[in-house]
Amino acid sequence: MNVKKQQAVVWVVFALCSVLLFLRFNPQWMLGELASYAVISWLVFAVIAFSTARFLAWWAIPIGHLVVLGIIAHLDVRWIQIDGAGREQDIGFYVGIFIHAFMVNTILLPVTATGLWHKGRSRWL
């Protein structure tokens, strides 16, 4: 098995273990958190995760996930400001954003693994 396939297998195993860990604690809460974004947001997240793994070097994968974290932080801050509760942006709010972004990026790990798998296959998708 070559190195790229090994990396893809490691990503898939890590993603599955992370998702199972989240589902172990409170699946209703997790599904509610994941449903808080629109379908177009999820498509943008998936395109970023897949594209960084497929078309860029391996070291760019964490950068892609950091971009997703930045988008999530922006969306959450805008949502709180539009809601009129801008004064509630304390350290707990930002810790919540980080946990939320971690959950979303964990769900995106299989998409990243798919991008790594397609990287070595052909020139076209």
Give a structural overview.
The chain is mainly α. It has one domain. Helix content is 79%, strand content 0%. Helix 1 packs antiparallel against helix 6 (109-119) and helix 4 (61-83) packs across helix 5 (91-107). The protein starts with a helix and ends in a 6-residue tail after the last helix.
The Cα radius of gyration reads 16 Å
Overall pLDDT = 76
Q: Which stretches of 5+ consecutive residues score pLDDT under 50?
A: none
The H/E string reads: HHHHHH
Number of strand segments: 0
Write down the overall geometry: elongated
Sheet with most strands: none
Structural class per helix/strand content? Answer: mainly alpha
Q: How many structural domains does the protein architecture include?
A: 1
Proportion of strand residues: under 5%
Total helices: the number is: 6
- Percentage of residues assigned to helices: over 70%
Distance between the termini: 22 Å
Summarize the structure.
The protein has helices spanning 3-25, 27-34, 39-55, 61-83, 91-107, 109-119. The chain is mainly α.
Labels describing this entry:
125 residues; mainly alpha
Topology, element by element:
Blueprint: H1 3-25, H2 27-34, H3 39-55, H4 61-83, H5 91-107, H6 109-119
